[in-house]
Amino acid sequence: MGLKEFAICSDGYREANPKYLRKSERRLVRLQRDLSRKKKDSNNRKKARLKLSKLHEKIMNQRADFLNKLSIKLIRENQSIVIEDLKVKNMQQNHRLAKAIS
């Protein structure tokens, strides 16, 4: 649950944080701007909304895929796994870290 590394194991193995939202942020902003400029109930607005929802879905799928692959890898390589208990909700109240943490 780090900002640089997603996970650090006791043997020194470090899994980098992929930051899928940050990588797609520029495209997200552009698609949201395009959507806001379209007339309501128009076909072009429906197309823009569909493009935006596909990008959100892609980011969601990338995150899920990363978590599944990492969890399977950790389960296969280790006998026991210990996780640090963090107060994520409290950490997200810091507006500078909220996007990086979530």
Helix-strand blueprint:
Layout: E1 5-8, E2 14-16, H1 20-37, H2 43-77, H3 88-91, H4 98-101
Antiparallel strand pairs: 1-2
Helix pairs in contact: 1-2
Mean pLDDT: 88
What's the number of helices? Answer: 4
**CA-based shape:** elongated
SSE pattern, N- to C-terminal: EEHHHH
* Largest β-sheet summary: 2 strands, antiparallel
Whole-number total of structural domains: 1
**How far from one another are the termini?**
9 Å
Strand order of the largest sheet: 1-2
Number of strands: 2
Percentage of residues assigned to helices: 55-70%
Q: Estimate what percentage of residues fall within beta strands.
A: 5-15%
Poorly predicted ranges (pLDDT <50, ≥5 residues)? Answer: none
Structural category: mainly alpha
Radius of gyration: 18 Å
Care to describe what's here?
This protein is mainly alpha-helical and 102 residues long. It has helices at 20-37, 43-77, 88-91, 98-101, and strands at residues 5-8, 14-16. It has a two-stranded antiparallel sheet. Strand 1 and strand 2 form a beta hairpin. Helix 1 (20-37) packs antiparallel against helix 2. The model has no long low-confidence stretch (mean pLDDT 88).
